[in-house]
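Why does residue order matter? Because the sequence determines the fold. Keep that principle in mind as you read this record.
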Amino acid sequence: MQKKFLVFYTLLLLYPFIGNGQDISFYKNKARIATDTLSKLTAIDSVLSKSYGVDNDAFVEYSSHYIELAKKIDSISLAAKKAMNLQLILSDYKNEPRRAIVIIDGVLAHKYKIKDSFLLGGLYLKRGKANLKLNVKEAIDDYAKAIDNFSTKDSIYIADAYLFSGQAYSNIGKFVAASDYYEKAYRFYEKRKEYEYMLHARQGIITMFSMNGFYDKAEKERKDLIETLKGLENKKYIITEYYNQAIDYQKTGNKELELTYLLKADSLLTITDKTQEDYINRIDVNAKLAEYHISNHQLFKAKEYIETLDQWIGKAKQDRLAKISYNGAKAKYYHAMGLDNEALQFAKKQLLHAKAVGHEDDIMYSHLLLSNIYSETGQFKKSLENKNSYLNLRDSLYNKGTAQFLAYYQTLYETEKKEKKLVEKNTNIQLLEKDNENFKKIVFFSSLAVVLLFGLILLYRNQRYLKSNKEVQEKFSQKLLVSQEIERKRISKDLHDGLGQRLLLIKNKIVANGDNDTKKMVDDAIDEVRSISRDLHPFQLQEMGITKAIEYTLTQIDENTTLFISSEIDNIDNLFTKEQEVNIYRIVQEALNNILKHAKAEASKVTVKKLTGNIIISVKDNGVGFDFTEKYQNIKSLGLKTLLERTRFLNGQMKVKSIKNNGTIIIFQFPVS
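Structure:
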């Protein structure tokens, strides 16, 4: 049996050269008519050597056939080699990473038979490359397994696994882990003098500078890297760096340079490129160019890039990264065109792909886009939900990214660039410490002072950020309240002027016919429509003023419910704008509704006092009371939150005093000029 396999392996090595003059159809025919497995595998191997990069469909078909035959004769090592080669074609050329994963999993099912560390580690490495297009966290797990299974003689592949891990961790916002893996990859490549791959590690670190807001540092390092890449004639990575620099200029508001660098990237894309990277680059660059012109209201120009995206997106069959860019650009384009239903569909797809890949930046901006679109379509609840998701994720990224990565800013990156120099300095410092304890103390306390200063700066920046975030949320809530009030007013007017008038006409006809029973039913309907109209918008404000409107509301509740209401109302007419009066009326109305729904009270007292520079409104009941903190934190408790938002809208203050089983008093204080 051993001699039989020896002959087989010899034929595998020599067969391509023996038949070098034959075309691919000759070997396809040989594979078809071969009667034994070894001859068939030899012929298929020749087909693969001639079809690689020339006929990818044939390469995929015959590779899959080869792998299945190799597994049948228990030659798992041969199957592993072909599965590794096939991953590149399936993921990068055919855009079918999931199929590549299935094939590799089929080989890994027999991994206990693979003795070569290169093959076993390589299978996990290749599966990680395929998973990177589908699920970043699963890719990270594969890279870790690759590192565990490679041996010391596979150091170049271990370096690759470290590099890919750094890229993956960076994509999901774990910058400390990413920095550690980039550093390990850089050292491995440096030791083997793999200079081009050293640049990849450097590229990853530059990207992290950008992600954490160190744009000046990233720009300087990226320009140096671009010059190096030009010397190496590495067009693919130059495109990536131009694109990344354009994104940085977008974030800093430099629209002129943003466009310049996007056009530089676009100029390097050629029609002859057929790799997966080219499809991704082409989609990413055109998506950003479309978004640039959309933001500048140049929709005719944006349309050209959108049409280019539509031509290329079919190439990226399962590539979620490309689909994130594509769906985002399409959503913004339709949103700008006023086609919000179409925009909504693409924005949802963008969020779906971003969540599947695990890119937190893309998830964050997808929520922001959805919030804007929902707001335009009047779906304010969904708009607010997505806005809160965006703000929460932004807070999370800020805390994870900036707080963690700043600790590495002066140590990690400079260590990678000037390792030898730092080692010499550290040696000199150690010698000086032995001779001079005072110097050691100075260094220690100086370092401590720098750390404390840096911490204070970080705390100050965080405090400013939180304050700004709070202001944005309050403004959004206030705009939402105004929008709701406008919509209530419109619906109320439509009910009163439209449906109410029609019911009156119906009533007049019924009276003419003498049908008293039907007349009573119509009267009840008219009363109900008027009641709903009054609840939706208090027209009595316009007719009677804020003071009489409040008194009228108290009278209505007193007469139509079991709640006894007493009041002391000062005249506060003409002290507020019409918009402010609506909010004051709503505050009183909401406070009383809460008593009716939850307090189980028998009596209530409403007081409105006009003081110098202030209006004090208090609403008191003798009900069951409640725990304010517990009630306010309950996500279903919207009443208290609405009261607080309306109070903020009026620049006022709200105080709640409540004891369980001992009643509640809510006091509002509003400034007046």
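The beta strands are 564-569, 603-611, 614-621, 653-658, 664-671.
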